[in-house]
C-alpha cells in the first residue's frame, strides 16, 4: 500500500468518525413551529404513556401543547418499538435507520435525527426501542435533555420556563442497563406514604391504590427503573386486592415482585386468615399454602412478574417448623421451592428456567443457605445487607457462574434492632456506592432493589442507586458520587448553588455517618428502651457534644442562607430535597445534644443547665414547626400527611426530660476546665483540677475554660494571663441571670514564638510519664480569673523542648500519651503485587477512608507472604514515651464477601511481627449492634515501643475491600471518648 493510499484512508476514517459524532439540532418548539410526537396505536401502552409524559413536560416548560398522534406530520418526534410501530419498521426496511446494535437487546434504544424519513418530512427525531421499556426510556431521555427533572412531580421541581426548545442530538445507540431488574421496595409506609395516599391523594380509595401507584410507576420510568416491590404492611391493603393495580403496573411496563417475606407474590402479612386457613406452617398446612400460591400465580399470569421463592414466617419472622433442627428446616425449604416451581410450570405453562424467580437469603434464611440448601441455579440469588447498609455476603466464584445470576436488596430505611431509622435519609451515599460497587464486581447484576421506605425524604439516594443500576461504568471511583451529587444539585437548583449544596449535603452525610440522627437518644428497640447516657465526652478533646452542635449549626446556617437565594419556582423543591432534611437532622441532634449539656451542667449545679434545657426544647419545637409546614403548607398542602417526625413513637422523637437548677446563692464566678469532669473548687488549696491539660508545642494544643454564673444576679469577670505567651479568646465579660448570659466558653492557646525554649537535646527523654515532664522541658505559668473580691488561678503548663530529631520532622506525634492518625494521611503507600490501598472520598468519620483494592484479590494470612506481596501503609510517628502500646484500629464495619474471605488487616510497629486484626462480627451479636450504631468497628492489638523517638506504624492488607478509617496508638494517655481525638500531626 502506498503512502498516498494510507493517507487517503486515514482522512476518510477521520471523516467517518467526525460524521458519526456530528450533532444535529432538532426544533422541539420555537416561535414559529412545534413538533408533534408520533407513535403507533398498536404499540404498547407504556409508549403512549411516555409520549404523553414528554408532551406534558414540553407544555409545562413552554406553555405550548404538543400533540401525540398516530399520523406523520411535518416536524415529528417518532417513537416506537421494533415490530410494534409501522413507521419505525418502514424506516428499517428502507435502510434509513440501522437496528443491529439494539435488536433483541434488553431495554436498549437509539436516538437519531433522520433526514427525509418520509415524503414531505425534512427530518425527524427518531427513537427506536428494542422493547417497550427501551422505547419509553428513549422518550423520557428527551425530557432529560430539555431539562426536566425526574422529580418534577414527586419533589415539585417545576420546569424552567422557556420560549423555545432546540436540542442537539448526537446519533447514537444507548447501551443497555448495567443491572437487568432495577427498582424499589415501598416499606414501612405506615407513617407517610399510606397516610398521604389515603387521606390526601387518593381518598376515593382510602389507601395506596392505582392512582398512587401510577405516580410511583411514572417516577420509576423517569429514573429508568423497571421493578416494584409494593407496600406490604398491614396498614395497606395488599397490592393485588385492588385489581387495577396490576394492570397499571403493566401499563407502565413495571415488573412486579415481592419482598423476602412474600413468596409467590402473596402478601402473607394481611392475606393470611388464621380463622379460615389455619396456621401458616408448611410442614403441617402445605396444601392450603399451595392453594394461596396457585391462586396468585393464576391472577398474575398475564403480566410481567418476578416470583420470590422460599418462605419465611409472618411479619418478617422466621419460618415456623415443628422443631429447631437446621437440617430439617433446610430440607423443608428445598421442598417448598420445588413445590413453588411446580406451580409456576403448571400455571404459566413454561419451563421454570424461563420464569424470573428470586431467592432472598435474608436473616435466618442466609443461615439455611450457608448450611447447604440446594437452590436451582436458574433462580436469582438476591444478597441482602445487614439492614444498616453493609452487605452480608456475595456470590462465591463458582456461584457467579449460576445461570440465574445474583442481585442485591439494600436498605436506606429500616424498622428493627438495634434501632429503627425510618424518618430521615441517613445512609451515606458513598457507603452505598462502595457496597454496590462491590456487589457489581462480584457479579450481582440481575436484580437490585432499594428499600426506600416512604420515598420521601430518600430522593437523592433513590436516584443515585438507580443511576448506578443503569450505568455502573460511570461510577468507577468514589469521587463519582460527589460529581453525581453536584450535577444533581445543578440540575435542580442551578450551577450557582450546586457546589455549596453538595458540600452541605456531604457534611450532613459525614455527621450522620458518625451517628445517625435516629440513634442520638442512645436508646434501642425490641424491646424499646428509654433514652440512655451518651458516649460523647463533654470534658475531653474539645467537648464532643459542643463540637457536634457547632458542626450542625454551621450547615444549618448555610442552608438558611441559601434558601432565600433559590429561584422562586424551585423553593418548594429545595425545601423537600435539602432544607427539611438538613434542618430536621440538625434539630434532632441539637435536641439531644443540648439535653446532654442540661444534664451535665445540672449535676454541677450550674444555672446554665436551664439555658440548655430551653435550647433543647426550642430544637424540638422547630422540628414540629417544619414538619407541620411540610404537611400543611408546602405546595398548597400537596404533601399533607406524608411526613412524620415520630415514626413508631419511639423515645428518640419525644421531647427529653430536663433538670432545672434553682439559684439559691449569691452570684459568683464558676470555672470548669477541659480535662476535668468537675468544676474548679477554688476553696480547696492545691486542687487537682486547677491546671489545664499540658500544651504541646508539636501539636499546637488549645483547650477550653468555661466561665459560668453561680447563683442569681450578675458578676463581672476578668482573665489576666501571667505570661505574654498565653492567649485567651476573651479576657473579660459580664454574666447575668436575667439576661440569660449564663456561661461563656473561652479558648486558651499559646503564642509559641514567645514561649521560653526548653533545653536543646538530641532526642526526647526516655520513658517518662507525659504528665510528669521534667522541669527542663516544661514552662509553667497561670491565668488569674478575677471577679469582685475573688481570684481563681488556673495553671498553664507548656511542653516546649527543642529536639534536633524534630527540627525538620513531618509526621504524627505523641500528645498526652497517645498518637491519633487519620488513615488517609499515610506517610507512604506501597502497592502490593496484585492490590493497592486507595482513598475513598465522602465516607468515614473524617470524610475519607482508605480501602484495599481490587476486591477480587484473594485473601492472604501467611505473615511472610503478607509482608512480601501485600499492599502496605506506613505512618511515621514520634513518641516521648516507650513501653506497651494499645494500637486501636477503626474500620468501616463491612462483612466478609463470602466464606474463605474476611475483614482483616495486619498491624505492626517498626520491625515487629505483624498481628492480624479481624473486624468481622457474627450474626446479630452485641458487637455487631454497637458497630452499626456507630458505623465503626474498633479492634486493638498490643505492640511494644522499645524507645522514645521515631517509629513507623505499618498496616498490610489481609483481605481486599477492608476500609480503614482511623488509628489510635495509646500509650496510656487516651481518655474515653466516642470518636478518636483529632489527629496529632506535626508539619
Automatic annotation (TrEMBL):
The keyword Hydrolase applies. Residues 811-983 form the Gylcosyl hydrolase 115 C-terminal domain. One of its GO terms (molecular function) is hydrolase activity. GO terms for biological process: carbohydrate metabolic process. Keywords: Hydrolase, Signal. The keyword Signal applies. Residues 1-20 form the signal peptide. SUPFAM superfamilies: beta-N-acetylhexosaminidase-like domain. PANTHER family: GYLCOSYL HYDROLASE 115 C-TERMINAL DOMAIN-CONTAINING PROTEIN, PTHR37842. This is Gylcosyl hydrolase 115 C-terminal domain-containing protein. It comes from Confluentibacter flavum.
Amino acid at each position: 500500500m502506498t503512502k498516498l493510499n494510507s493517507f487517503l484512508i486515514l482522512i476518510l476514517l477521520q471523516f467517518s468518525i467526525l460524521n458519526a459524532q456530528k450533532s444535529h439540532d432538532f426544533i422541539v418548539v420555537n416561535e414559529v413551529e412545534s413538533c408533534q410526537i408520533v407513535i403507533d396505536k398498536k404499540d404498547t401502552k407504556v409508549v403512549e404513556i411516555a409520549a404523553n409524559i414528554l408532551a406534558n413536560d414540553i407544555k409545562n416548560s413552554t406553555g405550548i401543547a404538543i400533540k401525540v398522534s398516530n399520523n406523520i406530520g411535518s416536524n415529528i418526534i417518532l417513537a416506537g418499538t421494533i415490530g410494534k410501530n409501522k413507521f419505525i419498521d418502514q424506516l428499517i426496511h428502507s435502510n434509513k435507520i440501522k437496528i443491529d446494535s439494539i435488536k433483541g437487546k434488553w431495554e436498549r434504544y437509539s436516538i437519531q435525527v433522520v433526514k427525509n424519513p418520509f415524503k414531505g418530512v425534512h427530518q425527524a427525531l427518531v427513537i427506536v426501542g428494542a422493547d417497550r421499556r427501551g422505547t419509553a426510556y428513549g422518550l423520557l431521555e428527551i425530557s432529560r435533555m430539555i431539562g426536566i427533572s425526574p422529580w418534577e412531580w414527586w419533589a415539585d421541581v417545576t420546569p424552567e420556563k422557556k420560549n423555545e426548545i432546540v436540542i442537539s442530538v448526537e446519533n447514537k445507540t444507548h447501551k443497555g442497563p448495567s443491572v437487568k431488574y432495577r427498582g424499589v421496595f415501598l416499606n414501612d409506609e405506615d407513617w407517610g406514604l399510606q397516610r398521604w395516599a389515603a387521606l390526601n391523594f387518593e381518598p376515593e380509595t382510602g389507601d395506596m391504590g392505582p392512582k398512587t401507584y401510577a405516580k410511583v410507576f411514572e417516577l420509576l420510568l423517569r429514573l429508568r427503573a423497571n421493578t416494584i416491590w409494593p407496600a406490604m404492611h398491614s396498614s395497606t391493603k395488599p397490592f393485588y386486592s385492588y385489581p387495577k393495580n396490576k394492570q397499571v403496573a403493566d401499563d407502565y411496563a413495571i415488573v412486579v415482585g415481592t419482598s423476602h417475606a412474600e413468596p409467590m407474590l402473596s402478601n402473607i402479612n394481611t392475606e393470611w386468615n388464621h380463622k379460615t386457613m389455619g396456621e401458616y406452617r408448611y410442614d403441617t398446612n402445605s396444601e392450603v399454602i399451595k392453594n394461596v400460591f396457585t391462586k396468585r400465580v393464576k391472577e398474575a399470569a398475564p403480566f410481567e412478574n418476578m416470583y420470590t421463592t422460599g418462605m419465611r414466617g409472618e411479619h418478617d419472622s422466621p419460618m415456623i417448623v415443628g422443631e429447631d433442627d437446621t437440617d430439617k428446616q433446610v430440607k423443608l425449604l428445598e421442598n417448598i421451592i420445588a413445590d413453588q416451581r411446580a406451580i409456576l410450570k403448571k400455571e404459566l405453562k413454561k419451563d421454570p428456567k424461563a420464569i424470573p424467580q428470586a431467592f432472598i437469603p435474608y436473616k435466618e434464611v442466609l443461615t439455611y443457605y450457608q448450611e447447604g440448601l440446594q437452590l436451582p441455579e436458574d433462580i436469582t440469588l438476591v444478597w441482602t445487607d445487614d439492614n444498616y447498609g453493609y452487605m452480608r455476603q456475595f456470590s462465591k466464584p463458582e456461584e457467579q457462574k449460576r445461570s440465574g445470576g445474583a442481585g442485591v436488596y439494600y436498605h436506606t430505611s429500616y424498622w428493627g434492632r438495634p434501632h429503627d431509622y425510618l424518618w430521615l435519609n441517613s445512609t451515606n451515599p458513598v457507603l452505598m456506592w462502595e457496597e454496590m460497587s462491590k456487589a457489581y464486581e462480584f457479579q450481582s447484576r440481575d436484580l437490585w432493589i432499594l428499600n426506600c421506605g416512604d420515598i420521601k425524604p430518600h430522593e437523592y439516594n433513590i436516584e443515585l442507586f438507580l443511576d448506578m443500576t443503569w450505568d455502573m461504568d460511570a461510577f468507577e471511583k468514589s469521587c463519582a458520587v460527589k460529581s453525581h451529587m453536584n450535577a444533581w444539585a445543578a440540575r435542580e437548583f442551578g450551577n450557582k448553588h450546586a457546589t455549596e449544596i453538595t458540600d452541605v449535603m456531604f457534611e450532613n452525610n459525614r455527621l450522620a455517618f458518625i451517628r445517625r440522627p435516629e440513634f442520638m437518644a442512645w436508646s434501642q428497640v425490641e424491646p424499646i428502651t428509654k433514652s440512655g447516657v451518651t458516649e460523647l465526652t463533654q470534658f475531653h478533646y474539645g467537648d464532643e457534644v459542643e463540637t457536634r452542635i457547632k458542626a450542625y449549626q454551621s450547615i444549618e446556617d448555610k442552608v438558611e442562607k441559601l434558601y432565600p437565594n433559590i429561584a422562586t419556582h424551585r423553593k418548594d423543591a429545595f425545601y423537600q430535597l435539602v432544607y427539611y432534611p438538613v434542618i430536621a437532622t440538625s434539630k434532632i441532634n441539637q435536641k439531644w445534644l443540648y439535653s446532654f449539656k442540661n444534664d451535665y451542667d445540672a449535676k454541677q449545679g450550674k444555672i446554665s443547665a436551664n439555658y440548655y434545657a430551653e435550647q433543647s426544647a426550642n430544637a424540638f419545637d422547630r422540628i414540629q414547626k417544619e414538619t407541620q409546614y411540610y404537611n400543611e403548607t408546602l405546595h398548597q398542602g400537596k404533601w399533607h400527611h406524608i411526613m412524620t417526625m415520630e415514626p413508631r413513637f419511639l423515645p428518640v422523637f419525644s421531647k427529653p426530660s430536663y433538670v432545672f437548677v434553682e439559684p439559691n446563692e449569691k452570684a459568683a464566678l464558676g470555672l470548669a476546665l477541659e480535662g476535668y469532669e468537675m468544676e474548679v473548687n477554688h476553696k480547696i488549696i492545691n486542687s487537682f483540677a486547677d491546671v489545664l491539660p499540658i500544651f504541646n508545642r508539636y501539636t499546637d494544643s488549645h483547650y477550653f475554660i468555661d466561665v459560668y454564673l453561680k447563683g442569681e444576679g450578675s458578676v463581672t469577670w476578668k482573665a489576666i494571663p501571667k505570661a505574654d505567651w498565653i492567649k485567651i479568646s476573651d479576657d473579660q465579660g459580664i454574666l447575668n441571670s436575667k439576661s440569660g448570659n449564663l456561661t461563656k466558653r473561652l479558648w486558651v492557646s499559646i503564642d509559641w514564638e514567645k514561649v521560653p525554649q526548653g533545653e536543646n537535646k538530641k532526642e526526647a527523654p526516655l520513658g517518662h510519664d507525659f504528665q510528669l515532664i521534667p522541669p527542663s522541658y516544661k514552662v509553667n505559668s497561670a491565668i488569674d480569673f478575677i471577679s469582685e473580691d475573688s481570684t481563681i488561678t488556673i495553671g498553664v503548663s507548656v511542653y516546649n523542648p527543642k529536639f534536633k530529631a524534630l527540627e525538620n520532622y513531618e509526621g504524627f506525634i505523641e500528645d498526652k500519651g497517645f498518637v491519633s492518625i487519620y488513615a488517609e494521611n499515610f506517610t507512604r503507600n506501597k502497592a502490593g503485587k496484585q492490590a493497592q490501598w486507595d482513598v475513598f472520598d465522602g465516607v468515614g468519620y473524617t470524610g475519607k477512608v482508605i480501602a484495599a483494592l481490587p476486591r477480587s484479590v484473594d485473601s492472604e494470612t501467611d505473615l511472610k507472604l503478607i509482608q512480601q506481596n501485600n499492599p502496605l501503609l506506613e505512618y511515621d510517628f514520634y513518641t516521648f514515651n516507650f513501653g506497651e502500646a494499645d494500637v486501636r484500629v477503626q474500620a468501616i464495619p463491612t462483612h466478609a464477601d463470602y466464606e474463605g474471605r474476611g475483614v482483616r488487616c495486619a498491624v505492626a510497629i517498626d520491625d515487629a511481627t505483624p498481628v492480624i486484626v479481624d473486624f468481622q462480627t457474627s450474626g446479630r451479636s452485641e458487637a455487631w449492634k454497637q458497630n452499626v450504631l456507630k458505623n465503626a468497628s474498633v479492634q486493638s492489638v498490643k505492640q511494644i515501643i522499645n524507645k522514645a523517638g521515631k517509629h513507623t506504624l505499618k498496616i498490610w492488607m489481609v483481605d481486599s475491600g477492608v476500609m480503614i478509617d482511623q488509628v489510635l496508638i495509646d500509650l496510656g494517655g487516651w481518655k474515653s471518648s466516642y470518636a478518636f481525638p483529632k489527629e496529632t500531626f506535626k508539619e
